[in-house]
């Protein structure tokens, strides 16, 4: 229940920190899985910064900057969400995010042990942008995370640049 | 879940309560009506039988009394024959009739008077005193006796006429004996009558009619007027009409008489009937109460059974849910152990010289993997009886093609060849159809390896409303005594370490939940052949059969 644990994972050759890194909010109650994800991010050389909260309720507090701990919380580029958690599980969290217009645009990728089609479909219906099966094969998991990182880094980059371009256009027009 | 279950339980209890309130009363009422009908019928039958016996007894008493009446009257008529015998041809009367008559009257005290009526006209009477008015009466034309006299003369037989009402109010009968004498001109000619008059009260006293009342019977002795059919009472215990009497016909001196007899208290025994009805009513009430009580017990027992069934169903569902959740949750730590064991091995690769340490690491990885497989199959087994998609017409070829791709590695490694024959579609959900063939082919891959190259044949045939699929291998097969056991959970026939021992149990559970079944046969070449019976479906449009 401590505040979000922030870890910067820097890909070799990158300076670390700054606008190039993907900000990930990891919602995971199990420390072993959280550690494994950090290992996977590190080994897949995804430039990412991880904010870690332990359940859905804490994640909502983070996103809504509620309480002293999260006053300076930054809006994540991606949420990685475990499904089975205490207090508020992943499904309830997904429903909350879907119903909140200010949070709806943040992509949420579900992390689950189940590879059953029914569960994957259910997550999609709740608004999940992706679904990663937590496999016991670390190599496979690292590869999955690498693909995920690459994809969402590109999306985040485009989103940031688009915002800056729009601001620049707006500034030019104002000067005119 | 428990709240919902308790709600269902309350509803069941309420339903049971309703049945307790309504049905036992209905059962009691039905039992009362049935028992009432039965008891009423028995009482009626018994009363009917009793009345029949009473009538039979009354008829017997009436016949006896009728016989006595006839005997008494006929004895009293005997002097008429004596008078006829004493008549001398050519004479108009009997000489010294008064003295003769007196003598006869002394022998027949029931007779009140003797008369001789030549040509039907009374000429002589004994005793004369008090009967003077009878002298000169023409019997053949007398208003009271004329008809009987003419009938007697015409028939030539003794005829009893009456009743004649005397001035005293007493009734009298008259016996008219026609006398015929030989006549030179006409042969046998009517001479006249010998008449015997008798008071009925005196004559009938001898017959014991009075005794009928002491025996509990009312009676009426009567004759009917030949013309008017009017009832002419000769003697009676009472003038009141008898209720449904027993009638005994008797012919007295050629006159038809009737004796009616009926019990003084009536044919029905009112008190006895009342007692029987009260006893019957009590019996019916007790029976109805018993029936209602039994119905109440049965209803309570059924309600209890339903409650128990609901509890068992609820507990079974709870256990199933618990098992599913347990298997699912155990997957998590098993996966983490396997993941970290794999990571540890890769991190230590090349840095561990001690083979014992390496072996331990390998065992941890293997066992974590095995634990995962066991949990996966246990989870599959627990959910095998529940569809995981829409039940529909499923073509099997695409499922097998997909399976071929997934198992390409293991098939190649085993050097196995998979032959797919004709496969009719089945009515099932696609995910479980996939599980069925995956387990069947994996089973053949694991246990079908023999001395020759492994060949797996998949075929199917439609049989009525069913379709039967067969997955055969050319391996060592399964001995007959083990063909049932292999479908049990965690049952394995070898300790090779391959397989979890749950696969065929999953297959059987899926097949049985669809109404079908699964069994092991011997393949033609001696290998193992797994047969699956599933509900058949019509071929969906646009799906080819060829493999």
> What pattern of helices and strands is seen along the backbone of chain B?
HHHEEHEEEHHEEEEHHEHHEEHEEHEE
CATH-defined fold name of one domain in chain B: Heat Shock Protein 90
CATH superfamily of one domain in chain B: Histidine kinase-like ATPase, C-terminal domain
Number of DSSP E strands of chain B: 16
> Can you identify the CATH class of one domain in chain B?
Alpha Beta
Largest interface: A-B, 18 and 19 residues
Structural class of chain A: alpha/beta
Low-confidence stretches of chain B: 1-20, 541-547
Helix count from the secondary structure assignment of chain A = 5
Task: Give start-end ranges of low-pLDDT stretches of chain A.
Answer: 10-18
Whole-Å distance between the termini of chain A?
A: 51 Å
Share of residues in strands of chain B: 15-25%
Oligomeric form? heterodimer
Q: Identify the CATH architecture of chain A.
A: 3-Layer(aba) Sandwich
Give the overall average pLDDT of chain A: 83
SS field, number of helical segments of chain B: 12
At the fourth level of CATH, the homologous superfamily of chain A is Response regulator
Question: How would you concisely characterize the structure shown here?
Answer:
Chain A has 176 residues and is of the alpha/beta class. Chain A has helices at 31-43, 56-63, 90-99, 117-125, 138-175; strands at 5-9, 22-27, 48-53, 78-82, 108-112, 130-133.
């Amino acid at each position: 229940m401590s505040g979000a644990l922030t870890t910067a994972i820097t890909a070799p050759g990158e300076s670390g920190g700054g606008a190039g890194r993907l900000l990930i909010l990891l919602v995971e109650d199990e420390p072993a899985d959280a550690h494994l994800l950090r290992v996977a991010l590190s080994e897949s050389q995804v430039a990412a910064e991880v904010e870690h909260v332990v359940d859905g309720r804490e994640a909502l507090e983070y996103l809504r900057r509620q309480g002293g701990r999260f006053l300076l919380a930054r809006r994540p580029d991606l949420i990685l969400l475990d499904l089975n958690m205490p207090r508020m599980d992943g499904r309830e969290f997904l429903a909350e995010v879907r119903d909140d217009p200010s949070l709806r645009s943040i992509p949420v990728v579900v992390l689950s042990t189940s590879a059953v089609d029914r569960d994957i479909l259910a997550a999609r219906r709740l608004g999940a942008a992706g679904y990663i099966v937590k496999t016991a094969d670390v190599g496979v998991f690292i590869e999955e995370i690498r693909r995920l990182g690459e994809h969402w880094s590109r999306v985040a980059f485009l989103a940031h640049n688009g915002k800056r371009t729009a601001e620049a256009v707006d500034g030019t027009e104002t000067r005119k | 879940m428990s709240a919902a279950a308790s709600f269902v339980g309350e509803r069941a209890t309420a339903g049971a309560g309703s049945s307790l309130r309504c049905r036992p009363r209905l059962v009691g009422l039905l039992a009362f009506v049935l028992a009432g009908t039965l008891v009423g019928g028995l009482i009626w039958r018994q009363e009917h039988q009793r009345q029949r016996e009473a009538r039979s007894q009354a008829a017997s008493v009436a016949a006896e009394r009728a016989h006595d009446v006839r005997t008494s009257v006929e004895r009293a008529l005997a002097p008429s024959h004596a008078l006829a015998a004493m008549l001398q041809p050519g004479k108009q009367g009997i000489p010294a009739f008064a003295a003769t008559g007196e003598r006869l009257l002394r022998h027949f005290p029931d007779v009140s008077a003797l008369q001789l009526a030549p040509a039907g006209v009374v000429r002589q009477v004994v005793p004369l005193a008090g009967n003077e008015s009878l002298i000169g009466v023409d019997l053949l034309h007398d208003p009271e006796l004329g008809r009987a006299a003419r009938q007697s003369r015409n028939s030539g037989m003794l005829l009893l006429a009456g009743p004649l009402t005397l001035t005293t109010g007493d009734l009298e009968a008259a016996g008219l004996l026609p006398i015929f004498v030989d006549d030179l001109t006409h042969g046998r000619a009517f001479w006249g009558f010998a008449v015997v008059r008798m008071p009925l009260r005196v004559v009938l006293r001898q017959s014991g009619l009075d005794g009928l009342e002491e025996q509990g019977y009312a009676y009426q002795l009567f004759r009917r007027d030949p013309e008017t059919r009017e009832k002419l009472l000769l003697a009676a215990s009472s003038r009141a009409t008898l209720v449904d009497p027993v009638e005994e016909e008797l012919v007295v001196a050629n006159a038809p008489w009737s004796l009616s007899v009926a019990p003084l208290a009536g044919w029905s025994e009112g008190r006895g009937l009342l007692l029987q009805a009260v006893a019957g009513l009590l019996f019916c009430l007790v029976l109805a109460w018993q029936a209602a009580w039994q119905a109440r017990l049965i209803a309570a027992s059924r309600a209890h059974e339903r409650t128990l069934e609901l509890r068992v169903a609820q507990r079974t569902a709870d256990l199933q849910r618990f098992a599913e959740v347990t298997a699912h949750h155990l997957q998590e730590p098993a996966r983490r152990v396997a993941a970290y064991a794999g990571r540890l091995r890769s991190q230590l690769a090349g840095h561990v010289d001690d083979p014992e340490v390496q072996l331990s690491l390998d065992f941890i990885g293997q066992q974590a993997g095995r634990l995962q497989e066991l949990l996966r199959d246990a989870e599959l087994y627990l959910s095998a009886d529940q569809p995981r998609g829409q039940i529909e017409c499923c073509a099997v070829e695409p499922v097998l093609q997909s399976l071929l791709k997934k198992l390409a590695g293991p098939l190649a490694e085993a050097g196995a060849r998979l032959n797919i024959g004709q496969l009719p579609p089945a009515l099932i959900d696609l995910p479980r159809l996939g599980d069925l063939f995956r387990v069947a082919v994996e089973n053949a891959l694991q246990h079908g390896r023999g001395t020759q190259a492994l060949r797996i044949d998949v075929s199917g045939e439609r049989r009525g409303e069913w379709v039967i699929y067969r997955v055969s291998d050319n391996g060592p097969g399964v001995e007959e005594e083990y063909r049932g056991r292999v479908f049990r959970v965690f049952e394995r026939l070898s300790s090779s370490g391959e397989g979890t021992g749950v696969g065929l149990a999953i297959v059987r559970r899926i097949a049985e939940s669809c109404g079908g079944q699964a069994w092991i046969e011997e393949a033609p070449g001696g290998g193992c052949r797994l047969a699956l019976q599933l509900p058949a479906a019509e071929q969906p449009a646009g799906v080819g059969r060829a493999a």
